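Whether sequence alone determines local backbone shape is best considered at the level of individual chains. Part of our work consisted of pairing the sequence of a single chain with a tokenised description of its backbone. This step matters because it turns folding into a mapping between discrete strings. For completeness, the protein is quoted in full, as a sequence line and a line of structure tokens:

_____
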Amino acid sequence: MNIIQRNFFRLLRSGAFNISEPIEPMSVFKWERLYQLAFMHQVVPCAYDGLLNCKYQFTVKLSDAQWQQWQDATNTARCQQESEEDEFLRADHLTNPLLNHKLQNILDDEQSDIISRQLLLIILRIVRHIMNEGMPVRQLIELGKFLRQEGKKVDQPTFMKWVGNLHLSPMCQLEGEFLILLFGFKKEELFFLGDKTNKNIEKIAQELIDFTNTRSQDWYFSQDNDSIFVHNSNTSAMFSHVRRSARYFRYYPSESVTNFFASFVHSLSHIEE
């Protein structure tokens, strides 16, 4: 990670989990880039809380205008209702019909533990974002907070049974390792984490961050107002999406293929009839 990304995650760890770390010195320009990163990932309030925790460090040097920018953006974000998520990224739906049928049976079971179902939906929301949007920073923070606040109340045997039925074990492993790498979690805090660690976890995390930073929506198809021809806004982004679908096939093979074609069809919905 570059210095902007390193400081970005230091601020998030401080703001979300009260982890104190020294901030590396940056120029005013790089602080502006960090703000843009926080805005893009929709974590401005959390990063701002980290800034306030670290503001007396000698290396934290923002202009008065930048402090005001952070404060105004944070106030706006906290006053606004949470924006509706793209229908395609719904956590209570999978694109594979068989897996989705199993998921709906789990969610419709009123006898099952509510907290365990909540955790499952958070896990699935992250899966949907990894496969379509890149690094789910805000959703990982939500997962981390939920585990620290409610994790001991989860019906672990039932939850792990659901994970097995939905073939989610590799994705749960990936999410747990992201929490360790990016947010300072300990292995013992993540009951769904297996013993085997991924040696390429840093590379995978960087790839997802870079994909998010190029805005994954660029690969969607569109149609000009004065043209009958359909084109995609960024051809290289489209092929990048194809490559990423292939890369994450091994983490969720039963969902990744149907997800790719479903996302392709979803992109066509941006075209006027």
